[in-house]
Specification:
mainly alpha, 0% strand, 47 residues
Length: 47
Amino acid sequence: GLNSPLVCQEMVMIWASGPLLGTKEDMDDIANATLKVYENRDKLSSI
């Protein structure tokens, strides 16, 4: 199955490595999407 903690860890590493290109709205969308994946990680294992 999907290794959600690893996915989240990699997202944080990408985020911490430098500014991502895009507007603040884009950054908010990415943050919200990442959080949504993390919050639903238990459901993802059944996909």
